[in-house]
Amino acid sequence: MYLDPKVSRSVKVLVVGHFAVGKTTYIGSVSEIEPLQTEEEITEASVGFDDLSETPDKTTTTVAMDFGRLTLSDDLVLYIFGTPGQERFKQMWEGLSRGALGALVLVDPERLEETFPILDLVEAFGLPYVVGVNTFDGRTQFPLSEVCEALNLSDETPVIDCDVRDQDSSMEALITLVKHLLSSLG
Hints:
- A 7-stranded mixed beta sheet has the order 2-3-4-1-5-6-7, with helices on both faces.
- Strand 3 (60-73) and strand 4 form a beta hairpin.
- It has helices at 23-30, 91-97, 116-124, 144-151, 167-185, and strands at 9-17, 36-41, 60-73, 76-82, 100-107, 129-134, 159-162.
- The model has no long low-confidence stretch (mean pLDDT 84).
- By secondary structure, it is an alpha/beta fold.
- The protein is built from 5 helices and 7 strands; from the N terminus they run βαβββαβαβαβα.
- The radius of gyration is 16 Å and the shape is globular.
- Belongs to the GPN-loop GTPase family.
């Protein structure tokens, strides 16, 4: 990882979510550097492990992590780590969560049941989090209040619509996370 000697502070956050929710795309949309991506072709070995029924056009998957960087000020840099979404990679979460201040949890509102194990991990690691409801073309959009209720989120958990393909929308989710982290620290 490149560390700039002029930067006096760095902050680590995670982008998490279930398989095929848009984590890699999200990091690519906000990173000021070419993101590190560990995407590999989906092969027959994933049969029985990865459910592609909702994402039949998906041909690659993250097998380790994604990494991006965003300079917030002259002396503050945000390091953004994306976790793999499959259950078989959850052991990577422990290492990636060390030193993280919080997480952006991306969800697909049509596959909310896949979010519960992700929320359990985020909460087990004691990370404050924000939920970003990803927008998918041609999919039903649900009111955020319904998503909150379905996920049984506390009133203190910020929830925001997010189109991970759109830099402005992705940045708004990141700003919401940073504000939430600042308020939870203060």
